[in-house]
Amino acid sequence: MKKYMIRCDMEGISGIVSYEQADPKKSEYQYGKKLFMSDLIAAVSGLIAGGADEVHIYDEHFFGRNIDLSEISSISSSDKIFVYMGKPPYEEDWAGGLTSDFDGLVLLGFHSKKGTKNALLNHTYENDIEDILVNGISVGEIGIETMIAKQMSVPLIMITADSEGVKEALQLEPEVIAVSVKESLGENSAICYPSNRTSQMIYDKAKEAAQRKWNRPVEDYKTGVHMKIRLADTIYSKEYLKMFSFPEFREKTVLCCWAKYWQNKLKVMEKL
Q: N or C, which end of the chain has less CB nearby within 10 Å?
């Protein structure tokens, strides 16, 4: 049985060039959500056409309430689709539903890490985070999600993103199938393409990704993982430092480090 997981974000979706389109509290969000669903349906449909028996979707953006299930139900073979909503946090033994029996990970609508020069909507998970260092290497969302999957022997098989997000992914995993759905021109501007064009691109590449035979990655941090998270100067960071001191973790895996940070974060958010 062939199983795939799609982890979704919105800033790297076709046509989105502003947080006004990606923030559920903003006026243009419904239009952004329409663009998001177009890309997502193309990716799911392509994986199924390529032979996927199950497609699991984890909604990572904001509060994890961006997916329109009525549109998902319109996909042929929708009984093969499982959707994780509400953004359940990673735990040390639970990676958002991803397990070692998955055949591949797809990152849909991702973007480059904070500080990437002239990159569209670049950030690292949220504005409270300035940078994440894993064993001294700076990574963003693409890096963390790829590392967690790799430690479970699940390959990153496809990414859709802006041009700078694609470059970041290819530096990490040169064999990944990459779809650049827009050409980054700056933090709030890009060359975009009509939705029918990007949908076809995503569908074709997702189908190819499901049909390709992928090698299982091997990632063995023999000396463990040292994760340091540099926080921006915000109300959240002040409360975090008061409760837990500097966010620095030494664990066996990236997942353990990341889960511990999020456990701490949730406790801080309860105080704010």
A: N
- Looking up tokens 């903003």 gives 26
Between CA 33 and CA 67 the distance in angstroms is 8
**pLDDT, tens only, 93-107:** 999 999 999 999 999
For 3-114+140-211, CATH number?
A: 3.40.50.10780
For residues 204 and 240, the answer to whether their CB atoms sit within 8 Å is no
Is the full-model pTM beyond 0.90?
yes
Single-letter residue type at 99: T
Which pair of tokens denotes residue 140? 């963003």
CB crowding 230-268: b at 16 or more within 10 Å, else e: bbeeeebbeebeeebeebebebebbbbbbbbbeebbeeb
Structure tokens of 201? 């691109």
- Please state, in angstroms and rounded to a whole number, the distance separating the CA atoms of residues 38 and 24: 17
pLDDT at 219 over 80: no
User: Which residue type sits at 64?
Assistant: G
pLDDT tens for residues 53-79?
Answer: 999 999 999 999 999 999 999 998 999
The residues spanned by each domain of the chain are: 3-114+140-211
Confidence at 154, pLDDT banded by 50, 70, 90: very high
Tokens 């389109």 correspond to: 21
Distance, CA of 183 to chain centre? 19
